[in-house]
Amino acid sequence: MIEVRDLYKNFGHLEVLKGINNKVEKGEVVVVIGPSGSGKSTFLRCLNLLEKPTRGEVYIEGKNLMDPRTNVNQLRQDVGMVFQHFNLFPHKKVIENVTLAPIKVKGEKPREAEEKAMELLSRVGLADKAQNFPSQLSGGQKQRVAIARALAMNPKIMLFDEPTSALDPEMIKEVLDVMKDLAKDGMTMVVVTHEMGFAREVGDRVIFMDEGRIVEEGTPDEIYNNPQNPRTKDFLSKIL
Amino acid sequence: MDLDFSIIIPYFNLFLQGALVTVKITALAVFMGIVIGLFVGMGKMSRISIIRWICIAYVEVIRGTPLLVQILIFYFGIPQIIGIDIPEYPAAVMALGINSGGYVAEIIRGGILAVEKGQMEAARSLGMSHAMAMRYIILPQAFKKMIPPLGNEFVTLLKNSSLATTIGFGELTRAGQIVAGNTYKPFEPYFVVAAFYLVMTLAFSQLTGYLERRLAESD
Ligand SMILES: Nc1ncnc2c1ncn2[C@@H]1O[C@H](COP(=O)(O)OP(=O)(O)OP(=O)(O)O)[C@@H](O)[C@H]1O
Ligand SMILES: [Mg+2]
Question: Do the chains contact at A104 and B119, CB–CB below 8 Å?
Answer without folding.
Answer: no
